[in-house]
Amino acid sequence: xxxxxxxxxxxPQRLRSLLKQADTLQFPAEELRLRVxxxxxxxxxxxxxxxxxxxxxxxxxxxxxxxxxxxxxxEDIRDTLEFMSRYSxxxxxxxxxxxxxxxxxxxxxxxxGQVVLEGGRVxxxxxxxxxxxxxxxxxxxxxxxxxxxxxxQGELCSTLLISPPGCGKTTLLRDLIRxxxxxxxxxxxxxxxxxxxxxxxxxxxxxxxCCHGCPQNDLGIRTDVLDACPKAEGIMMLIRSMAxxxxxxxxxxxxxxxxxxxxxxxxxxxxxxxVHGQSLEDLRQKPILKELIQENVFRRFVVLSGKGGAxxxxxxxxxxxxYLGKPSADR
Length: 331
What we know:
By secondary structure, the protein is an alpha/beta fold. It has 2 domains: about 1-135, Beta-Lactamase (2-Layer Sandwich), CATH 3.30.450; about 145-325, Rossmann fold, CATH 3.40.50. Helix content is about 25%, strand content about 30%. It contains 9 helices and 19 strands. Helix 6 packs parallel to helix 7. It is globular, with a radius of gyration of 21 Å.
């Protein structure tokens, strides 16, 4: 539970003490949600739990809660944001404008509340009242069963991972990057698939969890990372400067992403990317993503779901959307 311990240390003293007393480390938590005036909630083991302060334990969330349930205060929200930003919230202005900040370890803090508009666009977040602490985890080897499906004749296929939020696509992408970079051994024939140079555009610092530009997560020996860089600009920068064989990005969706991905394909780069969605058919209903499918930019689509736990592979499809199958062992 190293990641959970790391996150707990990032909370201010009062909440840190409560979380420790409640044996939070025993839970493989995915999220901690703080909402002013509402129970402190944790998502773990496919369920929601709330903190029973008097009994110093987590209970499975049911109904609206009682007097013993710990309720988050405005002070909790304020202190948490200040502590996690090391009392330098101004340094995270651009991230907060987009509704999140990323802390050491790659853990992402989603933020909502009252915003300030300028010219019809969000300029700043004035009052934060809601936090979603998403715990980032490395799971080395979680991509083992997927790798054989996204290679042909020893060559990586451009692959898009599709899943709803919180279903493990970023974790899977991180491991695919690592193994594509290091090289891996095929279980069926024992052959070594050689590693390739991978360029990662880590716009939200979730893949590499960089500190002063150096990844804290293992992304492989042949991987170059552009941290906190917009995806569209970063793809072009990496291709021009680092000559990667493959480029990896998390959560595509804008028209700028589309143009950059086209640029990468035309330069002969393989692409590894993720996108929010329920299915391949769901993507066909979205104009920008529909174009990527029609243009055969990706040769493999991996669809994930949260059924039975995050990271379950529901199916793998080829460029034409034909079902190829799925790994024999889900994550």
